[in-house]
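Hi V.,

You were right to ask for the full record rather than a summary. Here it is.
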Amino acid sequence: MIELELKKKEHSIKMGDICGEMESTITEDTLFIENGEPIGFYLRQTPKKLTMLVDVANNELNSPRVPKVKMDRGTRKMNLSRGINHVQQYSTSLGACMPRAHMRRDYGRTSQVHSVASAKTFIKAMLLACAEGEKLLKEYMPEQYEKQLKLMQENVPNKYQLSNLFSSSISNFNIAAPYHQDRGNLKGCVNLIFSKKENARGGKLHIPDYDAVVDNKDGSLLVYPAWRNMHGVTPIVPITENGYRNSLVFYSINGLQKFMEDE
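Predicted structure:
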């Protein structure tokens, strides 16, 4: 695995800007280092067992058995501004949901997908894939693994822990997000981002602070602290009618600390 020292660079990109098409700067297995500290990594291909689990989850996600929510990031106006045709976009969430900021006392919520019988295979495959992903995190970033385990124990009630290291998951179909920063995530934690792509190009992650463009190979895994920097996703352009790019993401949300006393 290559060790890459990330260095801050000047840029003029702002929150909400649309990410254009870019060439990948990170295409090989890479460990990201900042100020001597590993903060994430990219694997072009996950181990066989993990690959099989992600394939099952992805097949279920693409089926009508898993409920989805249509996203408005794929409006025709936005896609036309990117010079591409409109593509269908939707997502599915698992685990804990973000507390409602406008409510004085918001009782924690979990995704309703867990109560849908036809989604059980998807949920099982996702949880098993997450467990395998956590093993890779422990292998390549053991200090981060222990740090995140401690952060979860101190900030996320047991009933809102989707796994040992994550409270939540979102699976996105064809979603190329504009530049944003995941400020709702629990600081200090990394995300697991599994990619599935067929007959499509794009869907790469651009991190302007380092001018880094992470490749988005089918079957790849990106581990990154999404709370740390602004980032955007390059356009997803289907090459054939049924082309797509899915991202299956695990993360931990902030704001659940107030429910610790309810344990």
